[in-house]
Amino acid sequence: MTRRRVASSSPSVAYLDSSALVKLIAVEAETAALRRELLRWPRRVSSLLAAIELTRVARRLGPLAVPLAQRVLAGLDLLAIDPIAPAAMQIGSNVLRSLDAIHLATAASITAELGVLITYDRRMLADGQGIGLPMLSPQP
């Protein structure tokens, strides 16, 4: 399921973590603002981890959410986890959770192409800002 590596000469890619992707399959207060922001970023990426997380959430939401999650995932370039593991072990603060560390390390691995990392997780937002990543949580 891992797709092509993103390559670009300028920051043109939006990285979405699982907290953002869930808002695309389950309407929440921030969903409309997120959809508007994504209009600016036709190139979108995430970690292969997001495919697992989003599919698990979709299964909990019910059978109609699963095909929606599949459509959302089809619009992403999914980046492999294995090459990211060493960086994920070291990135961020000690309170950063493991799965969030994988997302941060994956986004950091494409810094040259990264225009924004979209998350709704406060710890990840703070840690991403702390290492200089362009972070955003679109709000209504």
Automatic annotation (TrEMBL):
Family matches, as SUPFAM superfamilies: PIN domain-like
Which cofactor(s) are needed, names only? Answer: Mg(2+)
* Superkingdom of origin: Bacteria
> Where in the numbering of this chain does the PIN domain appear?
15-124
Stated EC number for the protein is 3.1.-.-
The Gene Ontology terms for molecular function here are: hydrolase activity; magnesium ion binding; RNA nuclease activity; toxin activity
Keyword Nucleotidyltransferase on entry: no
Q: Where does Mg(2+) bind?
A: D17, D100
What is the main EC category here?
hydrolase
Q: What InterPro entries does the database record attribute to this sequence?
A: PIN-like_dom_sf, PIN_dom, VapC_family
Sorted keywords for this record are: Hydrolase, Magnesium, Metal-binding, Nuclease, Toxin, Toxin-antitoxin system
Query: What job does this protein perform?
Result: Toxic component of a toxin-antitoxin (TA) system. An RNase.
Q: Record's family?
A: Belongs to the PINc/VapC protein family.
HAMAP family per the record?
A: VapC_Nob1 (MF_00265)
Protein's UniProt name: Ribonuclease VapC
Q: Provide the species name.
A: Solirubrobacter ginsenosidimutans
